[in-house]
Amino acid sequence: MLAAGTLALQLLDYQRFARTHSGDVYIFLIATGFLALGIYVGARVIAAPRARPFDGNPEAVATLGISARELEVLEQILAGRSNQEIADRLGVSLNTVKTHVARLLEKLGAKRRGDAVARARELGIVR
Fold it and tell me: CA-CA distance, 99 to 90, in Å (whole number)?
């Protein structure tokens, strides 16, 4: 009985509070809504933009006349693989890889493999 009486008194006190401070309760609810909206919009605006997917600068590739297979060889060179390792991975002969490397060096205007990689990075062909 005592607990029921306490509950009834608390309910009456809450109703009195709600009637006397109803404007404050509404202002609190509206402020809370705007706070949540502000946090959501702020997180969307301030968030770092998503990085564009890497496309390999197709204009530079087309201008230089680099073939798809030469691009594969260039990626392997970038990974630091030897001509023999590249040949094994791509399933071609060692002479074919040497030909692709020589053409890449010529097209990129480089004397060494490292220079070719640096030039390809400058042009945005590889990362």
Answer: 14
Compute the distance between CA of residue 63 and CA of residue 78 in angstroms, rounded to an integer: 21
Torsion of CA 61, 66, 67, 72, to 10 degrees: -90
Q: How far apart are CA 31 and CA 101, in angstroms?
A: 66
- Residue 84: CB atoms within 10 A of its CB come to 10
Whether 86 and 76 have beta carbons less than 8 Å apart is answered as yes
Condensed to tens digits (0 to 9), the pLDDT of residues 45-60 reads: 888 888 888 888 899 9
Compute the distance between CA of residue 109 and CA of residue 60 in angstroms, rounded to an integer: 13
- Rounded Cα–Cα distance for residues 67 and 104 (Å): 9
Provide the whole-model pTM.
0.60
Alpha carbon distance 73, 76 (integer Å): 5
